Amino acid sequence: MTQSGSENVDEALTSTRAFRRKLDLTRPVERDVLEECLNVATHAPTGSNRQAWQFVVIDDHDTKNAVAQFYRKGFADNIAGRTPTPDQRVELESAAYLAEHLHEVPALVLACQRGRLPEDASAKQLAGFYGSVYPAVWSFMVALRSRSIGSSITTAHLTYEREVAEILGIPYDEVTQVALLPVGYLKPVAGGRSRRKPAPLHWNSWGSDC
Ligand SMILES: Cc1cc2nc3c(=O)[nH]c(=O)nc-3n(C[C@H](O)[C@H](O)[C@H](O)COP(=O)(O)O)c2cc1C
């Protein structure tokens, strides 16, 4: 890859963030653009190349409304009794904004995976299952971002996964919902890198820095 190629990729990866307040709620996202980005996403890796993902795109007003109601319930469950630190407060306010406006977001993309793990799934099963769909979720977000479209991974509605499955006609026993992504064009001032702490790095053995 050329230098400018790697710079472009780095730029896309570091500027893809959880966009909530910056989503333009008034501008529809074209179906062909969503399909293009989902097509990019399906080049992500999966265990044994199973490619067991499925996506439900919700752009119908009433259906978004119905799903958003369960998202809000799940979000309320998540934050109940939590006292955020000052750092977390901004994040929480942004998440609360999204919960309040979810039904207004132009499209909701629900990432699913065929199959359902047992309640007592092992770490290996969990890694194989979720690790075979989250790379596609992230690729989708990056593909959107490179087209000035924002999104965010969300899981708040999953407490009510069964209810949302019923709304959307998803066979609950055969298909697991893994993330709901609100998708919208970005308002003009939505640039900038995501902020991250440096990841602890160990060379050759845990705790060693050389
Ligand atoms: C597994 C997972 C679940 C998440 N669930 C939610 C959610 O339910 N609601 C929400 O608003 N954000 C959710 N997020 C978004 C995170 O809060 C966000 O990615 C993180 O705070 C970093 O934000 P930034 O990329 O803008 O810096 C989730 C992210 C991940 C990876």
- Total helices: the number is 7
**What Rg do the Cα atoms give?**
18 Å
The CATH C-level class name: Alpha Beta
Ions and ligands: flavin mononucleotide
Number of domains: 1
Helix-strand sequence? HHEHHEHHEHE
Q: What global shape is seen?
A: globular
> What is the arithmetic mean of pLDDT?
95
CATH topology: NADH Oxidase
Helix proportion? 40-55%
Largest sheet: 4 strands, antiparallel
Span of the ends, CA to CA: 29 Å
Q: Unreliable runs, pLDDT <50, ≥5 residues?
A: none
Strand order of the largest sheet: 1-2-4-3
User: What would you give as the CATH superfamily?
Assistant: NADH Oxidase
Query: Based on the structure given, which CATH architecture is correct?
Result: 3-Layer(aba) Sandwich
Number of strands: 4
Strand content: 5-15%
Return the structural class: alpha+beta
Notes on the protein architecture:
With 210 residues, this protein is α+β, with helices and mostly antiparallel strands. The chain has one domain (28-185): 3-Layer(aba) Sandwich (NADH Oxidase), CATH 3.40.109. 41% of the residues lie in helices and 13% in strands. The protein is built from seven helices and four strands; from the N terminus they run ααβααβααβαβ. Strands 1-2-4-3 form a four-stranded antiparallel beta sheet. α2 (31-41) packs across α6. The protein is globular and about 55 Å long. Flavin mononucleotide is lined by residues 17-18, 91, 95, 98, 152-156, 194-195.
